[in-house]
UniProtKB/TrEMBL annotation:
<dbReference type="GO" id="GO:0016020">
    <property type="term" value="C:membrane"/>
</dbReference>
<dbReference type="Pfam" id="PF00230">
    <property type="entry name" value="MIP"/>
</dbReference>
<dbReference type="InterPro" id="IPR022357">
    <property type="entry name" value="MIP_CS"/>
</dbReference>
<feature type="transmembrane region" description="Helical">
    <location>
        <begin position="94"/>
        <end position="114"/>
    </location>
</feature>
<keyword id="KW-0472">Membrane</keyword>
<feature type="transmembrane region" description="Helical">
    <location>
        <begin position="203"/>
        <end position="224"/>
    </location>
</feature>
<dbReference type="InterPro" id="IPR034294">
    <property type="entry name" value="Aquaporin_transptr"/>
</dbReference>
<keyword id="KW-0812">Transmembrane</keyword>
<feature type="transmembrane region" description="Helical">
    <location>
        <begin position="164"/>
        <end position="183"/>
    </location>
</feature>
<dbReference type="InterPro" id="IPR000425">
    <property type="entry name" value="MIP"/>
</dbReference>
<keyword id="KW-0813">Transport</keyword>
<dbReference type="InterPro" id="IPR023271">
    <property type="entry name" value="Aquaporin-like"/>
</dbReference>
<protein>
    <recommendedName>
        <fullName>Aquaporin NIP1-1</fullName>
    </recommendedName>
</protein>
<dbReference type="GO" id="GO:0015267">
    <property type="term" value="F:channel activity"/>
</dbReference>
<keyword id="KW-0677">Repeat</keyword>
<feature type="transmembrane region" description="Helical">
    <location>
        <begin position="134"/>
        <end position="152"/>
    </location>
</feature>
<keyword id="KW-1133">Transmembrane helix</keyword>
Length: 253
């Protein structure tokens, strides 16, 4: 790889990391902000309203920075893409750190704005057993990653609707799993508020569950994918992950 190509690749990675920080921050600020405001204002947003905020926040941020970073905003999603050969392993730590940083900064902002009262905690806690929450986190994250894999890695899908599809999946999952586990589906979404508030109850559930579900979801879609094209062709997506494909091409030059 020439020096000029290396410079372009490094610059592109820096921009992608910044996009992941901003995207995760705004996602967390909107979603966790809705949770906090709903708790502090006697349920004025309502639970369905909170679910809608999460879905809309994901949707708009996918359209805002998806063409720059791939719009992961989720360490489990990034890891799942890496295990299925659709994201470079060497960039995994940078993406995960960026997502954790964005989530922690957003949680810190909300704590400064609304204080640290226990009832305003915007993180995720099981309402029942840890096993119940673990299972529902695995299933909902599996569903989420299955949809992401379909709309983001298969060029037969309508890539322009990727943000709408992923946002709607988040909304549905929050409606289903919110009363049980808090509907994390994202280690950064749970770890960020936990770090700021010092509340680590059952935190392992929200790391293990999303990671297992996301990896399984990515590989499940690979199992049902049917095409006579070679792998290098089906991974050249026309959707919001196309910038990642270009980055991989530049790295191999």
């Amino acid at each position: 790889m020439s020096r000029s190509n290396y410079g372009v690749l490094c610059c592109s990675l820096h921009l992608q990391i910044i996009a992941e920080i901003f995207g995760t921050y705004f996602l967390m600020f909107a979603g966790c902000g809705a949770v906090t405001i709903n708790a502090s204002k006697n349920g004025q947003i309502t639970f369905p309203g909170v679910a809608i905020v999460w879905g809309l926040a994901v949707m708009v941020m996918v359209y805002a920075v998806g063409h720059i970073s791939g719009a992961h905003f989720n360490p489990a999603v990034t890891l799942a893409f890496a295990t299925s050969g659709r994201f470079p392993w060497r960039q995994l730590p940078a993406y995960v750190l960026a997502q954790m940083l964005g989530a922690t900064l957003a949680s810190g902002t909300l704590r400064l704005m609304f204080g640290g009262r226990h009832e305003h905690f915007p993180g995720t806690l099981p309402t029942g057993s840890e096993v119940q929450s673990l299972v529902i986190e695995i299933i909902t994250t599996f569903y989420l990653m299955f949809v992401i894999s379909g709309v983001a890695t298969d060029n037969r899908a309508i890539g322009e609707l990727a943000g709408l599809a992923v946002g709607a999946t988040i909304l549905l999952n929050v409606l289903i799993a919110g009363p049980v586990s808090g509907a994390s589906m994202n280690p950064a979404r749970s770890v960020g508020p936990a770090l700021v508030s010092g509340e680590y109850t059952s935190i392992w559930v929200y790391v293990v569950g999303p990671v297992v579900g996301a990896v399984a979801g990515a590989w499940a879609y690979n199992l049902i994918r049917f095409t006579n094209k070679p792998l290098r062709e089906i991974t050249k997506s026309t959707s919001f992950l196309k910038s990642t494909s270009r980055m991989n091409s530049a790295a191999s030059a």
